[in-house]
Amino acid sequence: MDKLAENTFIGHLLELRRRVLFAVIAIFVGFLISYPFSKTIYNILAAPLIDILPKGSHLIYTSLPEVFLTYVQLSLLSGFILALPVVLYQFWAFIAPGLYEHERKAFFPLIFASIFLFIGGMLFAYFIVFPNAFRFFVSFSGGDITAMPKVDSYLSLIVKFSLAFGLAFQIPILIIVLVRVGVLQVATLQHGRRYAFLICAIASAVLSPPDVLSMVMLLIPMYMLFELGLFFAARLPGPRPAEEDTADNDIAPSSHSIDEKDSDTSRS
């Protein structure tokens, strides 16, 4: 029996390695496609700041490989975004055999909603938060103080906060999942709105650029997304009773069935 478990574990590791390898190859191909357009990607990401800087101002670099490394990083990020459908498919292909039918049906809508919200959070940061935050910071220049942002520090800032906003917009998905699996109750969340608002305020202070305006501009959508997640969680079915999951054993995942067949073979 221990030998069977070891073989099953090794089989899962080999399958995981194969899926990760496909995902890495897809990202590398996306990188190769993106690199010729790295300067265009840079111009798009730099636009929110360039539009606010005084006329004739530019971003600067202070080390020779800085711009090249910046283009490489942007190409990797763009390559990952291009390869995201392949990466998600590899993730799904690895975990799907271990899920029941009702779990597979519930998983797909959450994946698409999560991608939509993540992209929405990044676009919200790019078009709404960054222009206002940069305008606030640049307003302190003047006289003997001139704004001369560095290429790598600026792009590191904008990528980091874009990802942070994308993750913050996952709140409805998190709430729905926690309610669906029975970790949280809708009634508990409804009675704990004040604590939810406090948590959103703390998270927005940590995730947003260090000014009050950016914090408020993240706090408002974060709390609205909390209410949105609560709205949908209250209208979705709760956790499945144990007897229903037992009944699903008749159509259990393929990986489980394979393990059971291997076990029967070893006994014989």
Automatic annotation (TrEMBL):
<keyword id="KW-0472">Membrane</keyword>
<keyword id="KW-1133">Transmembrane helix</keyword>
<dbReference type="GO" id="GO:0033281">
    <property type="term" value="C:TAT protein transport complex"/>
</dbReference>
<protein>
    <submittedName>
        <fullName>Sec-independent protein translocase protein TatC</fullName>
    </submittedName>
</protein>
<feature type="transmembrane region" description="Helical">
    <location>
        <begin position="195"/>
        <end position="210"/>
    </location>
</feature>
<feature type="region of interest" description="Disordered">
    <location>
        <begin position="240"/>
        <end position="268"/>
    </location>
</feature>
<feature type="transmembrane region" description="Helical">
    <location>
        <begin position="154"/>
        <end position="183"/>
    </location>
</feature>
<feature type="compositionally biased region" description="Basic and acidic residues">
    <location>
        <begin position="257"/>
        <end position="268"/>
    </location>
</feature>
<dbReference type="GO" id="GO:0009977">
    <property type="term" value="F:proton motive force dependent protein transmembrane transporter activity"/>
</dbReference>
<dbReference type="InterPro" id="IPR002033">
    <property type="entry name" value="TatC"/>
</dbReference>
<dbReference type="GO" id="GO:0043953">
    <property type="term" value="P:protein transport by the Tat complex"/>
</dbReference>
<dbReference type="Pfam" id="PF00902">
    <property type="entry name" value="TatC"/>
</dbReference>
<keyword id="KW-0812">Transmembrane</keyword>
<feature type="transmembrane region" description="Helical">
    <location>
        <begin position="71"/>
        <end position="95"/>
    </location>
</feature>
<feature type="transmembrane region" description="Helical">
    <location>
        <begin position="107"/>
        <end position="134"/>
    </location>
</feature>
<feature type="transmembrane region" description="Helical">
    <location>
        <begin position="20"/>
        <end position="38"/>
    </location>
</feature>
<dbReference type="GO" id="GO:0065002">
    <property type="term" value="P:intracellular protein transmembrane transport"/>
</dbReference>
